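User: I'm curious what two different proteins look like when written out as structure tokens. Can you demonstrate?

Assistant: Sure. I'll show them one after the other, since each token string lines up with its own sequence. Here's the first protein:
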Amino acid sequence: MDGGSRGADRHGRRLRHLALVLLVAPLLLLTGAGSASAHAALKGTDPADGGVLKTAPEAVTLTFTESVGLLDNSIRVFDPENRRVHTGKQEHADGRSDTARVTLPDLKQGTYIVAWRVVSADSHPVSGALTFSVGKRSATTAALPDDEVQDAASTALYNTARYIAYGGLALLLGATAFAMVTGVAAPRGLVVGGWWMLLAATLALLLLRGPYERGSGPAAAFDLTVLRETATSRPGLALLVRVALLAVAAPVAARAGVLRAPADGRGTAGSGRLRFAIVSLLSLALALTWAVAEHASAGIQVPLAMTSTVLHLLAMAVWLGGLTALVTVVQRTPGELPAPAVARFSRLAFAAVAVLAATGAYQSWRGLGSLDALTSTPYGRLLVAKLAGVALLLTAAACSRRFTARLAVPAAEVPAAPPERVPETVGAASGNADAAHVRDADAAHVRDAARVQDASHAGGVQGVRDAVDVRTDTDTDPRDPPAGPAPGDGARAPHLQALRRSVLAEISLGLVVLALTTLLTGTQPGRAAEEAAASTAAAEPPLGSATVIPFDVGTPGGHGKVQIELTPGRVGENGVQALIFGPDGGIATVPELRLTFTLEGRDVGPLDARLTNRGGYWATDTLNLPLPGRWTMRATVRTSDIDQVTVSKTVRIG
């Protein structure tokens, strides 16, 4: 083995090692990521979270910001002794897909916990819990579950499978597009490998879908009941359709070597158009299996969002998969990469980048909602990281395009070495004849260069071959030197190496951006997070008010302050809690505390709150304030049998 072969082998090993690192690094990023937030968010509940009801409710109803799917145990109710309440059938309230409801039996007095878990319309699970009380609040042994109950192993495996699915789609479609557009055979391993990657990842997603939705361990993936429910859900159906499409695409992937443009270009136009149509339809259908089950399928402007998502996925696949095919061809057979083929792929990559930029800008606007969400939501912060990666990716793409433009210059335009000088010993007649022949040959070379240049612009690879054929048939001369390396081959080598390095940088950055995109698809968009926060704020009752009133009965140590909390501080029934603080700032006890409310100008009051001593503080749950306005709150504090004082302050009742 010579030195050049050994150097090529070493370079190939370095490329394989680099590819392994670039594949594993984004997987580690996905594995270390926290649990995903879903698109849907709880908008309101009936009964209200934390509410105290005079009579037992007949049902629990949850309202969300978008459509949700119900699992087998989407709503669970626990009594004060942490026993599961036997509820009725769970369903969508009044047929509305953005609600979930379950009927209740006759509940006894006490505090109850409701744990819920549903699947958002964009295929991600969301869960939470709330409490309500019948009659009055009570102690409970039931534990309030975490709002984001996820199994770390199932979530990590599911995210990893999604990332591999994106990579398989890029290899399958990108390498195929490279072959069909450039006329250069795509490496068979890329197309077939991409097909197998996508198939394996899709089957893994189908198995892991149930555990991911339910927050259970990976072992539940083989539960037949869970698999049956997954297969009938919208995300499960999309995955099954993807498997069927891959089965149809298998013959195309198996014959990856014939996808390139035919060498003669004759008699195959019809079959080429048919093959292009089949590949295009299969590509669109595969991209749709993502769009119908993720963020594009929920929220605003769904038809436009799904169209944008399909175009974004296809452009990503053409760019990253095509770049992988290009660097593989350049590495294996750099001399067989015609300049027109490089130019055609450069135009294709530029179009893919333009589509990515346009669709990415729209999806960012749709997902964010406002600029504040860039820093205030996890989605916005991930989007900032992705945009930074895209900026670096575009810089690397600009470098690749520059080197591609240099490679696209036909070899005939590269200055050749000057002709060998004729020895002076040659006779005059012979010298004149040779000189005339040289002039004729130079003129022929000029004509050849013009033919090659015109052919490269007009007919691509076949045009170059035709032009060379014309030169061979009409302008041969027995005195021409033997054929050797084409002029300019040495000048192309540095450009090929530079192109290889810049394309590798593009691929590495593209894999990181792809990992960030995978995380974004599992994160609640900023627009949805802001809508959920606004809905929750509108649905929740006011938090009430806390008022501190100083008092002094005029005796040594007879001063302090009374702190009064009024909840919720609006018309209707309110709760009151009052604490007395002594001169040293600590909680003090007094014989009596009386509290009244008067609405001056409306001749309402004084209304006695009827506070009772509850062992260290004074309280009531039955204060009824019938009208809104500014009420005068008067507190009478008695510190001994003969010492008392009345102080007052104004509070606003909504």
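Here's a second, unrelated protein for contrast:
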Amino acid sequence: MLYEFEEIDDEFADISELLSELTAADGAARARALDSLEIQLGHDDWSYDDDWCSDDERLAAMCAPVLLELAVRPHWPDRLRLLRLTAMLVGDDASAADGAILASASRAEVGRAADAVLPSLLPLLGDTDAEVRSATLELLAVCGDERNLLIPALQARYAADTESRIRLQILDVLDVVARRRPEHAAALRLPQWLTRLLHTAAAPQDRLSALSHLLALEPRALPGAVVPVVLAAARELVRGGAIEHHPDAPVRDIYLRLDSRPDEQLALVEALFALDDSDIRALACYLAERLISTWRTEYPRLLECLADQLSDPETWRPAAEALARLGTAAAPVADRILEQLERCRRITEWDDPAVLPVQLPWLTIDTATPTLSGPGPMLRAAANTGDPRALPAVRWALTLDRTPWGLDTLLAPLGAHAVELVPLIRERMRHAHAHRSDPFLDVRYYQLACALGQLGPAAAAAAADIVAVLDDRSASLVEVLGRFGVDARSTMPEVRRYLEHDRLAVRLRAAVTLWQFTGDPAPVLPQLDAALSDYEETIPASELRLRAMTAAGELGFAAAPCAPALRRLIAEDLGPRTTVAAAAALWRVTGEPEPTVTLLLGVCGRPEPDPAEWPQRGAQRHWRTVAAECFAEIGPAAGLAASLLAAELAAPRRRCDSVPADEELRRACRDALDAVRTG
């Protein structure tokens, strides 16, 4: 029976009328109703309105039962369109292979409606139209509690269907359904069925998919047997040249589902590098980087495998990108990176605004869109190792008339070695100052000036060059002047002007710089109070609070008036990053170990993973590193932290999202452990 609608809100009145029109005897009227419903249900407003959760739920509860009841009627016209309309209420990831749980209420409503007609819906799996079968599978992925009926039906349909993409979709849906209710999968012996499929499926893509889903259901399944299965199937696909079923996606999923088995992950990645397929080897580059970035151990063979790809025209780019992101962890193959860099073409110019430039190893200069210019992955990989032999390559890039975008990123990894580039960078800054009409050049000047600030007092000679271009657009460079230290005190008059700036962030930077020049905290305290009193949960407010807490800690006892604001921030519990920064600053402004030690132990000892409060931007450091450094400063009074620090150093997994950041955390933990034990 079709549903009757009573007391429908005005916003859904049109939809209820269209649903009624779907039963019209006039085929033209039904088609018009379907056309209108497709527009209505596919409109972005349903997904992104402020009340999208409740709206989607009500919409699904109204539409799904009607659409499905019509779709399962024998010989009813427009069945495929009705199924697809219902799928619009489900969302894009209803049949995703990652086993996405029914998180939205709209999907739950569609699932309940599908359960209600499941005996009539399942026969559509045998429809002669493959698109009908596919749309039906999308809906079966969100069914509620009828697993005892659903799983056997899907298994039977897998055996009968001759179309590869439908079979793979069936396996994906089984994966989603089973991992939502693992007890049903176990009772119906689904893992055993997938295991048999590994040995009986004729199609290699089916074997890879079955293996991936088996590992999702039983992570410890097939100990030691995964790599041979993957390689055999991958070789078959590569030899067969099956573009539709290239093995890179399922192989990636299998790697990810071996997360608790790093030895097998390593064996798999090393084996992939030996396959005669450039796409597979490109995937191996990505997986090698991921493996090194996940586990705290040495991988000399993987680094050599990555370096081997640098000479291959098909895979040099993903290999170089991987090595660049690994930073100093790639230092063991720095010789090979530098050697290959010298063999590569240095620069290409690109002036087609309709096509993104293809990066070359050294530099790409986009004459149409300068922001797309920049150092290539091979040059970045060389500089990021921190090897001083990369300096000539960076120096050459700095000598170009058109200073490329992003060269500042090459200086920080080189550390003190980059000091010898200061005269050349100053020259480039003066060149930018002489061509202020070029807004992009002005931004590149700003980037280089910030990079000089990271070199500290060794770059103080550049203070005059920075002051020469200080204006409202570059006002935050006043902070760089402070990093130069007392040798830049001659710029104090210019810095003082920015104490009246309309942006609090600029006023705070100017005040901290003056304190670094004079030691007088008076200009800083009002700015600190204003920044610490802003509890907005936005990225700019969060970053400003963190900057203020760091500044308060740098002032030490002179910032004691900030202690109440720091305690309030701790009480607000705005997340680990803010709490740790506030607790560390509280210790530095009061000199009292408590409550800082207890707070840091509590935050760092939480068993759950680190929450991603905000993306880490710029030079913002991991909060665990900040905590460890604070323990080191406190010394023996933080003795209770010893076991926590030791556990962190013994943990096999990296904590941070990059190898350099994780290495910094481990260094901080080693220093802190020594300090709390010995003083």
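A detail about the second structure: The first helix runs from residue 10 to 21.
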